[in-house]
Write a structure and sequence with these properties.
By secondary structure, the protein is α/β, with parallel strands linked by helices. About 35% of the residues lie in helices and about 20% in strands.
Length: about 625
């Protein structure tokens, strides 16, 4: 068994920032990651980092833009904490050597982004995430932070108290991809999930193949509620053939969208009369698909994004990487012709319910970055807000897990925060095939008294923690052995492809009740087929087939959460468009959609959105651009 004060699961931006923060507080911290940190998907972020750095800007304006962008589903304590902390995080990055693009006077450059009232997006060419990732990894190396590279965390070592708010997380179970060994990791301070996005739930996504939602799925099965899972962002500019992202920075620099008739449709068709291409992402994505659906798309699939008028010098200085992407994947030279683009799944606004300090309702378990939902993005994330989010809340989770004295969080977590319970009329029963089935439901812990303080130093507390971890290690070894010993069944790839197909077809930008119910039926079939899943590769070393098989279970669970949330929320808000409910219903739906795994069955309830900030209350208004 490996032992540390703080374990960070995931080596992307949020994980690296959390590890650095915990180390700053004197903790023995380690990162456990299925990818080498610099291969993490943070490196694919292109556009930039929002922060109020200029005298003419303010954190208050940034907070309001973020709340408006969220369609008033964001929580004010999270949004204001974010907007206040972001400038210091950007300055810290600059001091660590982040190679920001700069103005002639030496100041860090900032450019406009969709939904912002001020050009506050700092950037490093069109490779901002890449440079951020390498800058922070350097800091981890400098500090000697241990990295367990290519270790896949498959389960959380959590006690089995009936009430999830009484449970404790003592560590994790991880699979050494290089050797096939399964080991326990104990965290005496806390476990921080920083596992990134869930894009592989869909088949047209900007996300990497590794983005399978491992953190939210594990936390969900351990009893942590997931929040606003229906809120999925579809980025308006992805390459049609691959889903590769074309940065919002192109539109921020002045790129223009045209339909088949050569119309600048964002203006000419009234989608965003003031901001045009720089409306928020949900607005632009719906506009593009409407153009396609009404027969004004190019080849009935996409629209054109044109940046030729910006000039070669400006493009090469600020957007050179975009030229390479368009040429490599579509055979288009962006200097001479427009690029084909269409909406693609990009980001999950929802995720693991946490407070401003990254804490979940399970003692000792934290989350940060895209896998978490502190609810600063609400129903729609503004471009340029993801990277500063992982910096701000990654740092706060790291500090808190390492015992820094921090202000009490205002956001409540856990089922006790419920103000209303609900049930959905579904065509099939969601959840485990058999409630309590150990293959799909949360694995129980040993029957131990684990009510003592998490940071207790007496031997008894450590023995109890070790017992919890060993129980989960034993259960995971048994599960893996059973998968490897089966010599026939269904391969995970077939199940995953079916899930991705139904989610892309039925739970995309435009949603309707019949299609959502069809997706639930398809997901039920996928769950049943997963009971017979087997692994073709029987080897123990570098067995990616077993990793993908475990990931597919996570994909099924999260696909169901997304669909259940989408069916429950009967309104049109932000990224969530419902054909039968074409208006925002503030009197009914300014509340968070919560799902909690209860012995194999998802319980649906709601908790209130917090619109009261530090010095003001955010009054919902019509959201226009």
């Amino acid at each position: 068994m490996y032992e540390h004060d703080v374990l960070v699961i995931g080596g992307g931006g949020a994980g690296l920032r959390a590890a650095i923060a915990a180390h700053e507080e004197g903790a023995d911290v380690a990162i456990v990651t299925k990818l080498h940190p610099v291969r993490s998907h943070t490196g694919a972020a292109e556009g930039g980092i929002n922060a109020a750095l200029r005298d003419a800007d303010s954190w208050e304006d940034h907070a309001y833009d973020t709340m408006k962008g969220s369609d008033f589903l964001g929580d004010a304590p999270a949004i204001e904490t974010f907007a206040q902390d972001a400038p210091d995080e950007v300055i810290q990055l600059e001091h660590w050597g982040m190679p920001f693009s700069r103005e002639d006077d030496g100041r860090v450059s900032q450019r406009p982004f969709g939904g912002l009232s001020f050009p506050r997006t700092t950037y490093a060419g069109a490779e901002t995430g890449h440079h951020l990732l390498h800058t922070m990894y350097e800091q981890c190396v400098k500090r000697g932070i241990e990295v367990y590279d290519e270790w896949y965390v498959s389960n959380l070592a959590v006690t089995d108290h009936d009430d999830p708010e009484e449970r404790q997380c003592h560590g994790v179970v991880a699979f050494d991809i290089k050797t096939g060994e399964i080991e326990g990791f104990r965290a005496d301070g806390g476990v921080i999930l920083a596992t990134g996005g869930l894009g592989q739930v869909f088949d047209h996504t900007t996300n990497a193949v590794a983005n399978t939602g491992d953190g939210p799925a594990m936390a969900y099965r351990a009893g942590v509620p997931v929040e606003d899972m229906e809120m999925i962002q579809f980025h308006p500019t992805t390459l049609p053939s691959t889903g590769v992202l074309i940065s919002e920075g192109v539109r921020g620099e002045g790129g223009i969208l045209y339909n088949e008739d050569g119309e600048r449709f964002m203006f000419e068709h009234g989608y965003a009369n003031n901001e045009g291409e720089l409306a928020s992402r949900d607005v632009v994505s719906r506009a593009e698909l409407t153009e396609v659906n009404e027969g004004r798309g190019i080849e009935d699939e996409y629209v054109h994004l044109d940046m030729r008028h910006l000039g070669e010098e400006r493009i090469l200085d600020r957007l050179e990487n975009i030229l390479h992407l368009a040429e490599d994947f579509e055979g288009v030279d962006g200097l001479d012709e427009p690029m084909p683009v269409k909406p693609g799944q990009h980001y999950a606004m929802g995720g693991i319910e946490v407070d401003e300090n990254g804490e979940t309702c399970i003692d000792g378990l934290y989350a940060a970055g895209e896998c978490a939902c502190v609810s600063m993005h609400g129903a729609n994330r503004l471009g340029g807000n993801a990277l500063p989010e992982l910096l701000v809340f990654g740092a706060r989770a790291g500090w808190h897990a390492a015992d820094r004295d921090m202000e009490t969080a205002q956001i409540e977590t856990g089922p006790s925060a419920s103000v209303e319970k609900d049930e959905i009329d579904t065509p099939v029963s969601p959840g485990a095939v058999d409630a309590g089935d150990e293959d799909v439901a949360a694995d129980g812990g040993p029957d131990v008294d684990d009510s003592g303080p998490r940071h207790a130093t007496d031997g008894g507390a450590l023995v109890e923690a070790d017992e919890v971890i060993e129980h989960h290690v034993t259960a995971e070894k048994q599960r893996i052995e059973e998968l490897l010993e089966r010599d026939e069944g269904v391969n995970h790839a077939e199940i995953r492809a079916d899930v991705q197909e139904t989610m892309t077809e039925n739970v995309n930008v435009f949603r309707e009740e019949g299609a959502l119910k069809e997706a639930l039926e398809d997901l039920r079939v996928a769950r049943e087929r997963y009971q017979d899943v087997y692994v073709r590769d029987p080897s123990r070393t570098f067995n990616t087939d077993i990793i993908h098989t475990i990931e597919t279970r996570n994909i099924i669970d999260l696909a169901e959460c997304i669909t259940l949330g989408a069916l429950a929320r009967e309104e049109f808000r932000g990224a969530h468009w419902r054909k039968e409910h074409q208006e925002r219903k503030d009197d009914e739906w300014i509340k968070h959609t919560m799902l909690q795994w209860n012995e194999g069955s998802p319980d649906l309830y709601y908790k209130p959105v917090l619109l009261d900030g530090e010095n003001k209350s955010y009054e919902p208004k019509e959201r226009s651009y």
